[in-house]
Write the structure tokens for this entry.
Amino acid sequence: MLDLNGKLRLHDDFKAATVQVGTEREPVVVVDNFLSSPQLLTDFAAAHCAFDAVSDTFYPGTRAPAPAIYCYALRAFLAPIIAQAFGLHDSRISGELSHFSLVLTPPEKLQTVQLMPHFDNTNPKQLALLHYLCGPEHGGTSFYRHRRTGFEYIDESRLSEYGNAVRTDLAELGMPPAKYICGDDPRFERTVSFNAAFNRVLIYRSINLHSADIASSFKFDANPRTGRLTANTFFYFR
């Protein structure tokens, strides 16, 4: 098996910037040139990972567990940037979950919740780290504002109102079309889009409304070397 221990190092041209997104000014950290040898992760996923369909209703594809050393590298290299951007200086990571992911679900098989932007969790101390191991041709990630409520993030205090508003949308506007949302529609307004770039990492709160940009021309490729391979990680802070 490919041994990643000691091989995941920062790129010499590592860059990180924090962007304030939308009218609610939620931070998104954009890291470019993260690892010096990101191809090692692609090689690992292709050689050693068994991708399985996911049981949750959000991710439209397959996943496989990422190696523990990868999470260690994320913590070691990005902890100071995360603490600064999200005001977590006095918080510690209490849990983590990391997978390699491939988008494989064709539009006609998407569930209702997959036709709209989603939030991963209502806890503002859960962060998502999205590491692109693919190029811009596979589409990036966009963040959204819900038109009826004006919400750009959903925490516990907003959950009931948002759920009721989405049900009203469905009653008044009908079902969304059977396609990936990739920009404005009658229910949601895109606030910003970040292109995919090989070895780019996006870091954001899991409460933010977001969705992958999957164009109508997207190739649903199950090969980790040529498909939309990402490493998706959640850090839980206390």
